[in-house]
Design a protein that fits this description.
mainly alpha; Transcription Regulator spoIIAA; two-stranded antiparallel ribbon; 61% helix
Length: 557
Amino acid sequence: MFARFGILTSLKGYRPEWLGRDATAGLAVAAVAVPSAIAYPAIAGLPPEAGLYSSILPLVGYALLGPSRQLIVGPDAPTMTVLAAALVDASMNLPADRLAAASALALAVGIFCIVASKLHLGVIGVFLSKPILVGFIGGVSISILVGQIGRLTGLRIESEGLFPPFVELFQKAGSIHWLSVVIGIAMFVILQLMTLWRSPVPGPVVVIVIAAAASAIFDFEKMGVAVVGNLPRSLPTFSLPDVMNLPLGELLLDALAIWLVSFGSGIVTARSFGARGKFAVDADTELVGFGAANIASGLFGGFPVTVSDSRTAINMTVGGRTQVSSIVAALTLTAALLYLNDALRVLPVPALGAILVAAAISLIDLAGLREIWRVSRMEFVFALIGMSGPISLGVLKGVVIAVAATLLYTLLKEMRPRDAMLGLIPGQHGFYKMHRSKPARPIPGLAICLIEGSLLFFNVDYVKARLTAIADGLSDTRWFVLDASAIVQVDSTAAAMLDEVCGMFAERGIAFGIAELHSEPMDLLKRAGLLEKIGKPMIFEDLEEASTAFTNDSASK
C-alpha cells in the first residue's frame, strides 16, 4: 500500500535478517555524522545545533520518500559553501535571521526538487558537468581551507577571498593564540594517521573524543581556547521559518543556485555509489527524496542538504541494506543531542577546524584535474572557471558563469556540425568516410554527404555554406543524397534551408534526396512540404536503398 503512494519504497521486500546490519550501519553513520554536523554549520556562520537538526530530520524525510536503499543524506561542503555565499549576499548578520534564511532556503530547495521531479527535470543535473564539479568542489575546498585560519589561530579574520585573509593573519600575527594552533595541528595529525593506518574507526570520531576529553581534563576554555559552547537539550520543533523581514526575491534566486549545486553534486555522488553498489539511480525519483529531506530540514530548523559521500560510504562499508539505517542514525543523533550535551559543549573549535581542513583536502581531486587536462584542454578551462567561483568570483556567480561557459561551448560545437563525403571500399560492405578511409571511392554520378549533428536555426547558415561548397566541387554528378542518420533534430528554419538547398541542386541539374531520416525530423519536413517537393522516389530508408535506386535509374537511361 505504501509503495503505491511512494512512501517507504526503499523498504519494499524487507527481510528481518537485515535488521542487525542496518542497526550497526546506522550507529556508524551517526558516529561519522556528529563531527561534520557540528563543524559544517560554521562554514555558513550557523550554530552547531543547526547541523544536528539538519542531520536528523532529513534522514527521516529521505527514508520515507527516497527511492534508494543505501544513499544517506546530510550536510555537505559544497552546499554549505553556496549557502554561506547566499547568506552573505542577502546581508544576514543577526543569528536569528541567518537561521530563518537557511531554513527558508531548505524549504525552497525542497519544493524546487519536488516540482522538478514532476516536470521530469532531473536532466538539469547534467548541466554541472564533471569538469565543472571537479573544479567547483576543488574551489570549495580551497575556500574552506582559507576559512579555517581564524578557528585554528584564535583570531577573528574578517577578510574574504583567497589572499586577503593571509594578509590579515600577517597583520595580526602578534595576537595568535598558540595553544589553539597546537591543538589544531595535533588533531589534524591524528586525522592523517587514522587515514594512513586505515583505522576501522573514522578519524573525525577519534578526534572528537580525544579533543573533548582533553578539553574537559585541562579546561581549555579557561586557557582562552574557543569551545563549541552550550547546545540546546531539546529536540528540533516543527515551525515555519519567519521570513517577514527577509529579502524573498534574493532568497528564491539563491535557492535556485543552491538547488542546482546540491542536486548536481548529489546526483553525481549517488551515481558513483550506485555504480559501486550495483543499484540504479534515477534523477527524477531521487529529486523526490532530496525534496522530502530538504523540506523536513527546513521545517525543523535545519538548512539545505544533499547526498553525503562520507555517510553513504560508511553505510555501504558496514553493510547497511535499507533506509532503516537512516532511521537508526536519526535516533542515535537525537540521543546524542539529548544526553551528550556536556561532552560536546567543551569541544575545542580548533579541533573542528582541523576536521574541516582534512575534509577539504580530501575533496581536492588532483587526479581528476590531471585526467581532464589530459583528455580535453577546453574542459580543463571550465574546471578552472568552476574552481575560481568559490575563491574569487563568488560562489553563486561562479556557478552561473561555469554553467553558461559549458552551454556556450556546447552551442559553439553544435553551430559547426561535421560533414563527410561517403564512398565504397571494393570488396567490403557499407559506406565509409572518404577523408578517413583512403581506399573508399565515390559511386560515379552519386554524391553522398553525411551531416553529423542536428539542423537548427543557429547552424543552418553554416550547413548551407558547406553544402554549397560541396556542390561547387562536384562534377558529372546526377544525384546528391543527404545521409540524415546523425540528424536527430530539425526545426522550421532548417526546413526552409533544406528547401533552398534542394532548389540549388535542381538548378545545377542534380536530383536531391535524403536517406535514413528519423521519424521526428521526417514529420516536421513533411509538414513543411519539403518531402513532397523532393518526391517519394528520392526518400530512402538507408544508403543501400539509395545506391540501388541510383544504379537502376542509371541502367534505365
